[in-house]
TrEMBL record:
Organism for this UniProt entry: Dryocola boscaweniae
One annotated GO biological process: Mo-molybdopterin cofactor biosynthetic process
Swiss-Prot/TrEMBL keywords: Magnesium, Metal-binding, Molybdenum, Molybdenum cofactor biosynthesis, Transferase
PROSITE patterns according to UniProt: MOCF_BIOSYNTHESIS_2
Names of required cofactors: Mg(2+)
One Gene Ontology CC term in the entry: cytosol
Gene Ontology molecular function, alphabetical: metal ion binding; molybdopterin molybdotransferase activity
Record's protein name: Molybdopterin molybdenumtransferase
Length: 410
């Protein structure tokens, strides 16, 4: 893997990562509910026609066109309900009462909605012109038996699984979960619930990463907090690499004296890149270990969460076998206040977006954008994405925003 010097742009980093990642291939077959969040291993094809039979789109009357042409009232020969077809004799010059979803009686050519009819003593009168084929849902008009309804590489959600259920299919073959190992590095880190000693802080990043991995459907291997000790870190790298497809650490990627991550990555694998032209999150290490990919997140919690979101999330999508565009959409909004920015790095400020009176989007900064202000994520509902070369932004200027997805409560 080639080492890239200097600060590299986010798009280049993503391109370098995504072009190298090879998705998992092992698959398993699961009941639909258990397949939620998993990725299809093969295209899903339909074993049946949908609809499975010609049926009525309305509550009304099934008719033959010749009887309508005759012009008189038609007596009702019987009734067809959803799940209870009309199979009796249907004499000429009669109609059949029919409900939505009921199978169309043999020979029916149209369904007249009941609002366009009138029931009289001699039978049903039809008060509007009737077109051949109207209000009939034809067998197979939605999905033909044998047709592909979902491609391989599709993440299964409430948009897809009910569709599979509607085909009568109870199980689906999906790719295995991505295995992700996570650990935090830092002598100063303590677990929530423990007392803090001098200069100590609570480990925020591992919880953030663990939660996001869970939400993205990964199997998580949590290796805890590792001290800033080269031996302990080496052991953690090796342990993580032996168990996971991707290893995610936080801290130790800057240039301080206790920052061993890059050094170990060089020793045990290869460094792809480790300095990005983004803010927050400049030190982000990406590389390869013997068996797994490695992502070294920055220590500052905002930077760690942001780089996970912007870089690790698409990496995991690719690794999990999802196909198609894995990058989020961006929108344009008017900024409500001044945004501080110096040229040189792509900036992901946290913002609150809403629809303005004129129907356009407007966005307000959450305030202090320091990489230690984690509360900014909870207040925000989007990133304000400020281009690399842009300087300060004045109120009223247009900016790009990226709405949060479900990882951040969007
Ligand atoms: P580092 O990259 O290890 O120098 O860390 C940068 C900053 O992030 C330091 O202030 C660390 O104390 C802080 N930090 C590192 N890891 C964590 C963590 N897991 N949770 C909260 N803060 C952290
Ligand atoms: Mg550290």
């Amino acid at each position: 893997m080639e080492f890239t010097a200097g600060l590299i742009p986010l798009e280049t980093a993503l391109e370098q990562m995504l072009s190298r990642i090879v998705p998992v291939t092992e698959s398993q077959t699961l009941p639909l509910l258990q397949a939620a969040g998993r990725v299809t291993a093969n295209p899903v094809t339909s074993p049946i026609d949908v609809p499975g039979f010609d049926n009525s789109a309305m509550d009304g009357y099934a008719v033959r066109m010749a009887d309508i042409a005759a012009g008189g009232a038609l007596p009702v020969a019987g009734k067809a309900f959803a799940g209870q077809p009309f199979n009796d004799e249907w004499p000429a010059g009669a109609c059949v009462r029919i409900m939505t979803g009921a199978p169309l009686p043999a020979g029916a050519q149209a369904v007249v909605m009941q609002e366009e009819t009138e029931v009289t003593e001699t039978g049903v009168r039809f008060n509007a012109p009737v077109k051949n084929g109207q209000n009939i849902r034809l067998r197979g008009e939605d999905i033909r038996s044998g047709a592909s309804v979902l491609p391989a590489g599709k993440k299964l959600t409430a948009a897809e699984l009910p569709l599979i259920a509607s085909l009568g299919v109870a199980d689906v073959t999906v790719l295995r979960k991505v295995r992700a190992a996570v650990f935090s590095t830092g002598d100063e880190l303590r677990l929530p619930g423990q007392p803090l000693g001098d200069g100590q802080i609570y480990d925020t990043n591992r919880l953030a990463v663990h939660l996001m991995l869970d939400q993205l459907g990964c199997e998580v291997i949590d290796l805890g907090i590792i001290k800033d000790d080269p031996e302990a870190l080496r052991a953690a790298f090796i342990e993580a690499d032996s168990q996971a497809d991707v290893v995610i650490s936080s801290g130790g990627v800057s240039v301080g004296e206790a920052d061993y991550t890059k050094q170990l990555l060089e020793e045990l694998g290869e460094v792809g890149f480790w300095k990005l032209a983004i803010k927050p999150g400049k030190p982000f290490a990406f590389g390869r270990l013997q068996n797994s990919w490695f992502c070294g997140l920055p220590g500052n919690p905002v930077s760690a969460a942001l780089t996970f979101y912007q870089l690790v999330q698409p990496l995991l999508a690719k690794l999990s076998g999802q196909q198609g565009n894995v990058l989020p959409p961006r929108l344009r909004a008017r900024t409500l206040g001044r945004l501080k920015k110096s040229p040189g790095r792509l900036d992901f400020q946290r913002g609150i977006m809403r629809t303005a009176q004129d129907g356009q989007l407007e966005v307000l900064s959450t305030g202090h954008q320091g990489s230690h202000i984690f509360s900014s994520f909870s207040q925000a509902n989007c990133f304000i994405v400020l281009e690399r070369e842009r300087g300060n932004v004045e109120a009223g200027e247009w900016v790009e925003i990226e709405p949060f997805n479900a990882l951040f409560g969007g």
